[in-house]
Amino acid sequence: MAKIMAVNAGSSSLKFQLLEMPEEKVITSGIVERIGLKDSNFMIKLNGEKQEETVDIADHAVAVRMLLDKLINLGIIQSFDEIEGVGHRIVHGASVLTKSCIINEKEIALLESIIDLGPLHLGPNLTGIKAFKKVLPNIKHIGIFDTAFHQTMPEEAFMYAVPYDWYERFQVRKYGFHGTSHQYVSERVASLMGKKPIEVNVIVCHIGNGASICAVKQGKSVDTTMGFTPLEGIPMGTRSGNIDPAIIEYMMEKKGKSAKEITNILNKQSGYIGVSGISSDSRDLVRESEAGNHRAKLAIEIQAKRIADYIASYYVYMGGADAIVFTAGIGENAPSTRQNIIERIRVLGAEIDLKKNEVHGKEQLISTPESKIKVYVIPTNEEVMIARDTYQLCHL
Ligand code: ADP
Prior knowledge:
Nucleotidyltransferase, domain 5, 14 strands, 39% helix, alpha/beta, 8-stranded mixed β-sheet, binds adenosine-5'-diphosphate
């Protein structure tokens, strides 16, 4: 038995889960928010009960120290030595860190060398790793990369049709994200179907605030909708997804803004919030749409159309699909969104049972027995993937 910590560090937050491995049992989990701001929030969940505290937490190192002290004070561990390894979710490994690995000085230097590829996320990820390594210097720290699962994409899927030296000199290519989730869900669906991952073709729809679709052919990612950055693909809570790139220069001139400012709008003020003008949260949009708000409905329909387009495209690209899976906040919890998408791909022979589709946040087959493609809801579990790789690399 071993205790493994799975960590996801954001710019001002730190999510954690402590698991007993290899049993994959969650011992405790929680989140520290507003790190570096006044009135930071520390929440830890133990035996289903939440404990919350508001204190000023200056930086990630302080948050880590507080979290570990809390584990001792609550009697969850007797000493830090009980934690065998820490697995860090890292958003980007580019083409240099292509699978889960132990993070030492060399890997930190590599991550620093690619920071331009994802400054918003990689910076905080590195801060989290350094903070944990400082407090727990004698155990293994493992990096698990959101991009790793997509490294199997063929060249024709990951290359953009731009001057080749953009790729050679500046690493411009599709990387894809949410890989840990796509891998977990595609493996899980194979198992629910009583098959090995290599025996099935799956289309995974990870639809949360961030959203991406992945074509998983015989256990391998062969295409995905997010690209060089998470901005590409389908519209999301605040991201536009694909647009004509010429719009950027046009709007820079119209609004007198820089490329950076326009890109920021495409990342933070587009998608659901941009079209509806109401909210980036799907629950608000579903409610407003049902109450007759045209733009709320439009925001939902634009996204559903694009998702259906990608499903059809991946169906063709893979030469057919055995299953479509919905996961993440919206995919797991929004029956109307799932129904909308599946109705749009009826021509492929997919059909859902409206009663079974009422499910929220638990594993369920929602297609009818006649459906030519099985449709599932499967809650994602990135933490367990992080813990599995960490446990495995700690035991090499
Ligand atoms: P991320 O991890 O990308 O921040 P999540 O996977 O947590 O996002 O998904 C957040 C989205 O899930 C929000 O749009 C939220 O409205 C939606 N969501 C969560 N619960 C429900 C629900 N019960 N019904 C509809 N949407 C939901």
